[in-house]
C-alpha cells in the first residue's frame, strides 16, 4: 500500500531536478500526478517515461494556473495535493542585479506559489481536504551573498505558508514548507554560484558532509502530502544535513 494511494497531485517545476524526483516518488507511492514546467522537451520525456501527465505551466500566469488545475480535476475528478516546487535562482550581488532580474525571481518563486495556493482552494474544498507543500530553502532562514532576490523570495514563502495555514485550516487544507540545503541539482550547480563559493569551506560547514540526492527531499514532501502528516500545518521542515546548525555558514 502506497503512502499516497488515491491522491491526485499537481507538482510545479516537475521536469527535472527535485521536481522530477517528486513526480517519480509520488507515482511510486500511488498518487496520480499532473506536473507542469516550461521545459517542454524534458517534461514530455518524463511524462512518456513515467506515465504522469505533463502540462506546460508558467507559474507566474494566473490563467495557466487555471488551466493546470482544470486539467487535473477534469482527468481525475479532484485535486488533493499541490507541491509548489517551481523556482529559479540568479546569483547577482545587489549592485549588479537589475530590477527586472529581481522581479523575475520574486515572480516565479513567491508570486507563483501564492497563485498556486489561491488556485487550488476551491478544488480542495470540494474534495473535503487538501495538502499544500511549498518548497522554500535554507535561504529562507539565512541570507547569502549574491542571493538577495532568492533569499527574499524564500523568506517570503515562509510567511505565505503560515498565513495560508491559518486561513485554510477551517477547510481541512494543510500548508507546510520544506527547506532543502545542499541538493545535487542543476540549480545548485549554477555556474555563477559555483564560481563564487569556496566549495571546501562549504563542505566543512556541513554536519553530514555531502550533497543530498533530490529524492531525499521528495520523501519529506511525500510525507507532508500524505494523511500521516494530518496534524502538521504551518510548519517548516529542513532537509539540509544539519547545515543550519553549522557556525561556519
UniProtKB/TrEMBL annotation:
This is Glucose 1-dehydrogenase. The keyword Oxidoreductase applies. InterPro entries: NAD(P)-bd_dom_sf, Sc_DH/Rdtase_CS, SDR_fam. SUPFAM superfamilies: NAD(P)-binding Rossmann-fold domains. It comes from Nonomuraea longispora. The keyword Ribosomal protein does not apply. It is an enzyme of class 1 (oxidoreductase). PROSITE patterns: ADH_SHORT (PS00061). GO terms for molecular function: glucose 1-dehydrogenase [NAD(P)+] activity. PANTHER family: DEHYDROGENASES, SHORT CHAIN (PTHR24321), ESTRADIOL 17-BETA-DEHYDROGENASE 8-RELATED (PTHR24321:SF8). It comes from the Bacteria. Belongs to the short-chain dehydrogenases/reductases (SDR) family. Keywords: Oxidoreductase. Its EC number is 1.1.1.47.
